[in-house]
Design goal:
This protein is α+β, with helices and mostly antiparallel strands and 194 residues long. It is 38% helix and 15% strand. The strands form 2 sheets. Strands 3-4-5 form a 3-stranded antiparallel beta sheet. A two-stranded antiparallel ribbon has the order 1-2. A hairpin with a 2-residue loop joins strand 1 and strand 2.
């Protein structure tokens, strides 16, 4: 034994090491709580980003399906598409619309079929996307068939993103007639070749 001041201590060895600390201090507990809290906040933030990304992917997938349906409707009515009957250049107004009927149900004209297709498509878009709508315009740079072998239509599928609701943001790529709509409007552009 060694004498240290007025007390006797054993020399420090592997089994006889004297430790002054007998438990965790309050400071160590606080640091552990802070580190754990930061980890939990990062996890919650990651979950929120994952949910938002999943919703955006869902909206884009639905918009792609709607654009494919619109292109199929145009190609099925080959007489009305080049005449511009599938254009829809009105200001953005989401919501269901009334589907017109043919004057003579047994013999609808190409223009009447186009009007029905457009109304039905707008109702499907309003049902499948929040604030679903469209803006469709023939490409003015290309003359329509038969003057040109290829005609083209620019189509924007439009919806309101609930995550951006209440903001004055409009999505990138929206046509000028839609950008002023604000309030979380998103657009996805497609080019349809007739």
């Amino acid at each position: 034994m060694l004498r240290h001041g007025n007390t006797w201590k054993r020399p420090a060895g592997p089994r006889t090491l004297v430790r002054a600390q007998r438990g965790t201090s309050l400071l160590e507990v606080l640091i552990a709580v802070v580190v754990l809290s930061m980890g939990m906040l990062a996890y919650v933030n990651m979950q929120a980003v994952a949910l938002a990304s999943g919703k955006i992917a869902q909206f884009r997938s639905v918009a792609t399906q709607l654009a494919t349906d619109y292109a199929d409707r145009m190609r099925a009515n080959a007489a009305a598409a080049p005449a511009g009957n599938y254009q829809f250049v009105q200001p953005y107004a989401p919501g269901p619309v009334v589907v017109p009927v043919c004057a003579v149900p047994a013999a609808c004209t190409a223009a009447e079929i186009a009007a029905i297709d457009l109304a039905v498509w707008r109702n499907i878009a309003a049902d499948q996307l929040p604030g679903g709508g469209l803006f469709a315009q023939m490409d003015p740079a290309l003359p329509p068939p038969p003057a040109s072998p290829v005609g083209a239509m620019d189509l924007w599928v439009i919806w309101r993103d609930p995550a951006l609701e209440g903001t004055d943001e409009a999505g990138d790529g929206c046509p000028a007639a839609v950008v002023g709509a604000g309030n979380g409007v998103n657009c996805m552009h497609f080019r349809i070749v007739i």
